[in-house]
Structure formats: structure tokens, C-alpha cells
Amino acid sequence: MTNLEWALWYSEVLGLNVIPIMTSLKEGKIKHEKRPLVDWEPYITKRVTPEEINKWWGKDHPNAGIAAVVGSISNTVVIDCDSPEAIIAMESIIPESSGVPCAKTLMGGRHYYFSCVDKMRKQVSFMPSMDFQAESSLIVLPPTKGVNGTAYEWIVKPENRQDFPNINIIKESTIYKACKESVRKPLHDLTNLTNTYIWEEGKRDDNLFHVAHSLTKTNNPDEYIRQVLRAIVWSWGERDEKWINSKIESALKREERKARNLRQEIEAYISLQPDYISLTDTLRDLQILTKEEKNHAYVVFNRLIGTLLEKDGNQRGKYRKINKETKRTKFIKTKIEEFPIVLPFDLNDECLLYPKNVIVVAGSKGSGKTALAFKIALENQNLMPVIYLHSEGGDEEFSDRMQSWGIKDESEIKFDAIPCSKNFHDHVTNERKIFIIDFLEVHKDFYEVAIPLKAIHDKLEKGIAVICIQKKAGALFGRGDEFSQEVSRLYLSMEYLKKEQCTQMTIVNAKIPKHDENLTGWWRKIKITRKGTRLTPLDTRWNKPIFEDEKPQRKYKNWQNGKD
Fold first, then answer.
1. Could you give the C-alpha distances from 197 to 16, 46, 163, 293, 510, in angstroms and in order?
2. Could you tell me how many helices (H) and strands (E) the chain has, helices first?
3. Rounded mean pLDDT of 360-369?
4. Would 69 disulfide with which of 17, 35, 142, 526, CB 3.0-4.6 Å?
5. Which pLDDT score is estimated for 564?
């Protein structure tokens, strides 16, 4: 569809108040800015007409992007997530069955669309990297493009107005209720940003129960709770003691039922956690404070052993989640296509790589790991999305390296460069992308390098990962020795040869060679010049290892000196 057709569709089908915009980059900034092409403030309260839309996109600004004035004029509010952590937090809170419309922003953020009835106030940073866009807010819509050519994209596209769930679904979900209080409270407050009074008709019973629940949680005596609830009901102007007592009893009974549902609450909490669970953390995060509730929680945990949990060794109060998910490996009848990543030094001619594969590059200091990582990023950025996660250097060093590669403008950089020094798997998705980690650091217990490597591998689905790790000069494997090749399909070792002032790259392992020969031990010398931007092979082909006698034992003894 053209932008005009999109704008009409947004207006007529989704009921959004649309205006034309352009995106731009502010000098010295990376973040895109939206620049309205018309005076948009009148449209906070005034509906845009089809005639205006046809004029704006049909005649005045045919290439303009599209934005929506959200709030009461569009009956729409948006939760704007600007970081991977915020996206993960949001995805873990919204009910899976709700199908919340979601769009990807130019910088990799997310917009989650909800419906609203009343006016709701805009709230910036109500949680880390999360904004609540409501009255008088402007939200850019797909397929608006940025100056670097990337575009807003629908991840979950709405088909009609009914696809926008009410914002209140967040606090009504079981998953939300199982979250930490630090997460629940801001989101709960969001859904109450209207000017309604908490004791108005239709909300009294629920809010009276919440008061009873809070007082019980903090271990107050029953009589004190009854007095507080009675005072609240009196404030409504009610004087019928029989009716008042029935309301109090109802609120207290709901609290009792809440206690009986503790197992569901604990199970929901466990479902959101990683592999290992601490009973102490669970009690704290779910605000299980009273002795009775704690005893009930202990019973729940014991009953879950063998189904959801198993004890973590002999550690008291520590458990491991039992993973019973089974996913059968599919047999694909059609021709199997290898992953279309472009690798240097004719590696594509020698080995096969498929989606979910991991390439490990172990390099000694100065051997050119980063140069190789940049080369792979730049040679693939026009073929598919590339995410480059780097643990060293800031904006200045990154810019200097890019300029050395001949990059003159940011628009020439199509891959996403993100500073990251730990938890790299948080940035890995199941999408068809190339994820480059430069480099994965392990400072203690080097054998544990296998843990982050597996975490990255487990998150891959349709993409591929290139992971650089440090290695000791003269060693074949990277930090962690053979543990570092646990999940790799291709393992390369890079060693700087001081005497020859070049780098030797060795194929330590290639699980799927293209031809009949085993590639283990093949090596090639490379000259790295021009500040790491020119990688020139000194050999016309890969050199094969020489075998001694008739035994298939390769001579690695002097491999670091380039000798066979």
C-alpha cells in the first residue's frame, strides 16, 4: 500500500487521528526525531477528515510518514519501550492470549497499542525505558521510514478496532499479579490515570477488597481490619450496620479465597523465572509475609516437586525448574538451503552453516578478532539485519573504526551496534538475523564460558551467531579450553605471529564440511593493515595439516609459528 492508502486505513478502520510527519536526526544525536508537517495541536480534539488526508498525502506530502495523535481523540494509548530490558518486562506482563498490537520502532524499540475510554495522562519513564503515551501524544506508525532507510514495522498487526485490548487487561492478568511489586505498582497506577474517584459506584467492592488484602498482608489484627473497613463504608454515607457487615465479610472472604489461590500465584511466578528458583526470593517478591502464608507456600513448593520443580542439590530452599517441553525435529523434504552469511577467506566454499548455528572465533590479543567481526558485519549488512554487540570502546572509538573502513555518514551503517558486556543472550531473538558478539568475556572460572555460549545458542531460532572470545597466546582454544567449543558448528582460532607480523587463522573444528575432507587443522595466514580494515590472505588457499606415519595424528606442536 502507498502511504496515502495506509493513512486512510488507519483513519477509517482503526479510528486513529493521523497527521503527516518526517523523521530526522538531530545533530550530534542518534535518536530519530519526528517533525510534523502540519500544525497538529488542533487535532488533539478535532477529527481529521478524509479530504485532509487525501490532500496531505496525495498532493502536499506524498512521501510523508504517518503519525497518530493518541489519547481520547483516537481512544488509544501506547506503551513505548525503548530498551531490550523494557521489551522483555512488557512481554512478560501482558497476557499471551490478548494479542496486543505491537510495532517495531526505528531504533529497535516497541510500541504496544491499547484502547481507552476516558482521558488518560501522559507519563514519561513510569518504568525504566518505558513511556506511557496518552493525551496529547504523537506516535509514529508503520511503514514510516527513517533517514537511514529502516522503517517502523508491525510485529502484531491489528486488523480492526476490536484488536486493541483495553489497557486494564494488564492489571487483570494472572501474570501481572505474580510480578514484583516494583513492576506491578507503576502499571497499576497507569491504568488509574483518569480523574475517577476510587469509591465511585462499580469500583467500591474491588477497592474495599484491596484494602482488606493490604491490611491482612501486613499482619494486622482482624478487629483492626474490621474497624478500618467500617470507617471506609461509613465514608460512603452508609449507616445500615447489617449492610456494612455484609460488605466487610465479603471483603474478608475474598481475602481468604485469595490465600487459597496462592498455589496459582506461585506457579505463575515460577513460570516467569529462569531455570533456578529461590524460595526466599519467591516469598519476598510475592509479598508473602505472614507465618500462615509462608507455611502454605512451603507446602505448595513441596507439592510442586516432581512436576514443576526439583531440588537443587542439597541447598535448602533452592530449586530447579523441570523442562518438559518437547519439540520434535522436523524432516524437511524440500532442498535444504544453507544460511546466507558471507564469510571471508573462502570459508563459504569449505563448510556449511544453517540457522541456529554458532561460529566461535578465539583470538589472542592483537590477532584481529574485532577486524574480522567488523568485516562480517559490513559485508552482510545489506543482505539481512545484523546486530553487533560490542563490549569495548565508546562512541568515539566505534566512529573512528567506521571512518577507517571508509564510512563517511551514519546512513551507510545498516547494522545495529549496541554496547553490551554481559547477558548477550538478552539481545538475541528468534528472528532471521546475524548476531555478532565482540567479545564474550569470562574473568573467573573460565570453564563456565560454556554457560553464556549455550544461553545464546538456545535463544537462536532462524538466525546465526558469531561469537568472539579471548585466548591465551600460543593456545589453540579460547578461554575455557574445549568447553568453549560446546555449541559451535565452526570454531576458528586466530594467533598473531610476531616474527612474521601476520595472523594465522586455524580451523579448529568445522562440523559440516562441504566436501568429503575433514577441515580440522586447516590454516591460512592473513595480513591485517590499515588500522584493521584491510584483511589480506597471504596464502592462495587453505593449507592442510601434515600427518605423521599412518596415524591420523596432526602436528599441532608448532602451529603457532606457522609450521606444518
1. 29, 28, 29, 32, 67
2. 16, 22
3. 92
4. 17
5. 40
The band of 171, judged by pLDDT with boundaries at 50, 70 and 90, is: low
On whether the CB atoms of residues 445 and 382 are closer than 8 A, the answer is no
Spatial CA neighbour of 42 closest among 22, 19, 60, 58: 19
Higher pLDDT, 309 or 190: 309
Under CATH, what is the fold of the domain 347-561?
Rossmann fold (3.40.50)
Predicted local confidence at residue 87, as pLDDT: 84
Mapped onto helix, strand or coil, the DSSP state of residue 78 is: strand
Which string of DSSP letters, residue by residue, matches 282-312? HHHHTT--SHHHHHHHHHHHHHHBTTTEEE-
Segment 197-216 shows an average pLDDT of 60
End-to-end CA distance of the chain: 61
In this structure, of 224-228, 266-270, 314-318, 399-403, the range with the lowest mean pLDDT score is 224-228
Longest dimension (CA), the chain: 103
The pLDDT of residue 83 is 84
pLDDT band at 185 (very low <50, low <70, confident <90, very high): low
- Tell me, rounded to whole angstroms, the distance of Cα 81 from its chain centroid: 10
- Nearest residue to 68 via CA among 124, 19, 103: 19
What residues form DSSP beta bridges with 310?
320
Look up cell 584493521; give the residue. 532
- The predicted pLDDT at position 559 comes to 43
Architecture of domain 3-189: 2-Layer Sandwich (3.30)
CA pair distance 439, 461, nearest whole angstrom: 21
User: Which whole-number Å values give the CA distances from 142 to 37, 241, 343, 442, in the listed order?
Assistant: 17, 58, 33, 41
Q: b/e string for 394-419 if b means 16 or more Cβ within 10 A?
A: eeeebeebbeebeeeeeeebbbbbee
State which amino acid sits at residue 6: W
SS3 assignment for 326-382: CCCCCCCCCCCCCCCCCCCCCHHHHECCCCCCEEEEEECCCCCHHHHHHHHHHHHCC
3-class DSSP state of 201:
coil
Q: What is the pLDDT of residue 325?
A: 60
Q: Which three cell numbers stand for residue 409?
A: 555518514
* CA gap 279, 304 in Å, rounded: 12
Percent helix, percent strand, percent coil in the chain, to nearest 5: 35, 25, 45
Give 90-109 pLDDT, tens digit per residue: 877 776 556 789 999 988 88
Cα–Cα distances (Å) from 245 to 205, 239, 249, in that order, read 13, 11, 6
pTM for the model: 0.45
DSSP state of 47: P
